Amino acid sequence: MHAYEESPFTRKLAAFVALSKDELSVLERLHQRRRSFRVGIDLVHQGQSEQTAYILSQGWVCSYKIQRDGTRQIVDFQIPGDFLGLRSVLLRTSDHSFEPITDIQAAEVSAADLLEAFAQTPRLATAILWAASRDEAMVVEHLVGLGRRPADARMAHFLLELGARLLLVGIADKSGYACPLTQYHLADALGLSAVHVNRVLRHLREDGLVTFRNGHVTFDDYDRLIDFAEFDPAYLDQAGPVLL
Amino acid sequence: MHAYEESPFTRKLAAFVALSKDELSVLERLHQRRRSFRVGIDLVHQGQSEQTAYILSQGWVCSYKIQRDGTRQIVDFQIPGDFLGLRSVLLRTSDHSFEPITDIQAAEVSAADLLEAFAQTPRLATAILWAASRDEAMVVEHLVGLGRRPADARMAHFLLELGARLLLVGIADKSGYACPLTQYHLADALGLSAVHVNRVLRHLREDGLVTFRNGHVTFDDYDRLIDFAEFDPAYLDQAGPVLL
């Protein structure tokens, strides 16, 4: 087995397309320009016009927007298998920034690389469009969550979504996952204060639902947590390949 | 000139890709199965698994999610040139519903149609990925707006964004545009009550910024409105083709 068959990006796309040998080798070429980035140093800046995207293969990243008043809104977190800045390769300027939360490894991809890959295998284009659609569905869920869900349910929903995403690329199981996020990350993503995040996590732990401690999320009662969060994972669409 | 060269979808993609004759004829084929829908009757239901998308050629649509408590969150509005349910053609189930706000005309597109089009012209795949990325950038802007912008600025930003989108497909100019939205649509989209929408619109009108009356949005002072809303249209990325 080649290294690329193991890549989280390949694992993720395989949830949508049953990949052929040819498609796997096109994916391999997309992974050629491997780069490492250190925690805390932005890969792509909001407003930047350099047209490069990355496929994350190891580590965690957060994408955020800085408001004119200087406050930061975290848009989402990227985990292995996710694109970083697909929009910045297609749109003229990046509409947000990417900061590694841990040291990361990623493959650099240009617009020309994508175009070449799409020419070789149109199914791959559909798969990447699927992944982009799934990302948009997640942002929509966060929009709805911010508008409608109370803080406890919002946190529970968020921890379950992360778990489902990590499960898809093989770095979580139903008992939980390693998670490098701080309470400040959670606060900026969920529109809560750090103190409020603390209180919400204590409630969820004391209710026997989920424990987030020492860089690890443990699902204490997975089914009850899903019920509490009203979590329906259909929007993540990860039940197995649609295109055979 | 053929009808498809005039289609709003073609006009929109032309902002990203300088379309060749071959690409225009592939686009024509995507427009073959024309359908009409009446105001108020949903095209795609949340949870529906039929894999059909539409390219809107005439009229306005709103996409929304129904919460478990029965409340409706409007995710966005679709105008001519937009995809309806691109996600429902790619993901297994639709994560939201589409309701025509006016009578509409749209072309039906299946996953197979898309795959065939991508095989014929990979540049078109990139262009559609561009359009999907732009849609996601809009949802991110709405997320940020809901979290951070006061009601008056949120409304101003929303009316400017719609104006820019309509301008791209040739049905607005800098003085304003025809707009079939009701105050209930605005309320559900912006997270305000209908009474609050009324008050916000009165403020904006009395301040000489923008007037929304009798189905028409008039920009009374475009530059000052942009300043007031802190509207930076870079995320809409409509300054002319990137791929030549």
From TrEMBL, chains A, B:
Residues 149-223 form the HTH crp-type domain. Keywords: DNA-binding, Transcription, Transcription regulation. GO terms for cellular component: cytosol. Residues 15-111 form the Cyclic nucleotide-binding domain. The keyword Protein biosynthesis does not apply. One of its GO terms (molecular function) is DNA binding. The keyword Flavoprotein does not apply. InterPro entries: cNMP-bd_dom, cNMP-bd_dom_sf, Env_Response_Regulators, HTH_CRP, RmlC-like_jellyroll, WH-like_DNA-bd_sf, WH_DNA-bd_sf. Gene3D superfamilies: Jelly Rolls, Winged helix-like DNA-binding domain superfamily/Winged helix DNA-binding domain. This is CRP-like cAMP-binding protein. It comes from Roseibium marinum. The lineage of its organism: Bacteria, Pseudomonadati, Pseudomonadota, Alphaproteobacteria, Hyphomicrobiales.
